[in-house]
Amino acid sequence: MTLTRPDTTGHTATADHIYATGLRNQWHPVVPSHFVTPGGMRKVTALGEDWLLFRRGDGTLHMLADRCPHRGARLSLGKHLGDRVACWYHGVEVEGDGTVSSVPGLPGCNLEGKKLVTSLPVREVGGAILAYFGDEQHPEPCELTLPEPLTDPGIEAILCYAEWNVPWRFGMENLLDPMHGQFLHHDSHTMFDGDTTAKFRIRETDRGYFFEKTDQRGVNFDWVELCRTGVDWVDLSIPYPPSAGPGGPFGIVGMICPVDARRSGVFFWRYRKVEGWQRDTWRFLYRTLIEKRHWEVLEQDRVMLEAMPHDADQAENLYQHDLGVVRLRRLYRTAAEQQAAALAAPEPAATAPAGG
């Protein structure tokens, strides 16, 4: 199930395939944590491949390729046996690390004790499951630095998750396009103010870049930062009026899961810096008053993006406001081409023994 060379039996490692289904050798969000309860399991699709998530009774989470090593049946149709799953077809049992622990039909056969199913490293943060998707040259997970708003105990972050029928790139590009807020979201409760004309600049950081207005700050959707810290995420903030309760600016951390070439999982954490009674007040206000408004804004994005043709980015006329989107496309396209080229390179020939 891991991305492989073009001449093997896995997915063809072309740049187009990687660009369409998501970059490898990094972490991606998969689904919210509550989708997999203790003792439960769930089939998911991510980066164009089918996976099985299952959780032990103690909360330990595992992620396996949804493919039995015996005949290729779906492990997600099988039985949860606590620390392993059993294929429904012939009962083959697979542990959380992908090792076949038992073949009931032929005990002691050569499948037992072998790691024959791909198992992905997983982490949980802010109510979401992240997984590392490598290729055959990079099976070990890269370093992961989680977004500060999801790890700072002084910040209250609330996850909102949705699934959209759009390519994952469209979701990321939407986040790197601050100006759409002034038009698409103009009637929302926080984005009604500010100029409808602006100039933007790109400002480099040690973890990505800012795309920001040069002549407006603290009014609307004025800046966004792309962060590449082992997982790709976007940070932005919107000033909030006193009527929204205690806390500073309202922040958003956004991540996109490439489900496949046409579908995405959208993760938005809404956060504010609040502690003590202010945290309780903010959460109450959010759940009772503000959350519905935020879902309305997300719905505006979904409707707009789902209505776009899947090849919308192939026939455009861009202008200065699109610098952040252009930069993002170049970054991802270059990374996809580099990953595909590395996998397509000939493997080094084996060196003959000396004196042979």
Order of helices and strands: HEEEEEEEEEEHEHHEEEEEEHH
**CATH homologous superfamily classification of the largest domain:** Naphthalene 1,2-dioxygenase Alpha Subunit, Chain A, domain 1
Radius of gyration: 23 Å
Query: Total strand count, please?
Result: 17
CATH class of the largest domain: Alpha Beta
Q: Helix/strand/pairing class, anyone? A: alpha+beta
Strand content: 25-35%
Oligomer: single chain
Q: Kindly report how far apart the N and C termini lie.
A: 38 Å
List unreliable stretches of 5+ residues. Answer: 5-10
Please work out how many helical segments DSSP would assign: 6
User: Which strand order does the major sheet show?
Assistant: 11-17-16-15-14-13-12
Largest sheet: 7 strands, antiparallel
State mean pLDDT (0 to 100 scale). 88
Q: Under the CATH scheme, which architecture of the largest domain would be assigned? A: Alpha-Beta Complex
Overall body shape: globular
Number of domains: 2
Task: Write up this protein.
This protein is an alpha+beta fold and 356 residues long. It has 2 domains: 26-133, Rieske Iron-sulfur Protein (3-layer Sandwich); 148-336, Naphthalene 1,2-dioxygenase Alpha Subunit, Chain A, domain 1. Helix content is 22%, strand content 28%. It contains 6 helices and 17 strands. The protein has helices spanning 15-21, 148-151, 168-175, 180-183, 276-307, 323-344; strands at 26-32, 41-46, 49-55, 61-65, 79-80, 84-86, 93-95, 100-102, 122-125, 128-133, 155-164, 200-205, 208-213, 223-228, 232-238, 250-258, 264-273. It has a 7-stranded antiparallel beta sheet with strand order 11-17-16-15-14-13-12. Strand 14 (223-228) and strand 15 form a beta hairpin. Helix 1 (15-21) crosses helix 6 (323-344) and helix 3 (168-175) packs antiparallel against helix 6 (323-344). The longest helix has 32 residues, at 276-307. The radius of gyration is 23 Å and the shape is globular. It starts with 14 loop residues before the first helix and ends in a 12-residue tail after the last helix. The model is unreliable at 5-10 (pLDDT under 50).
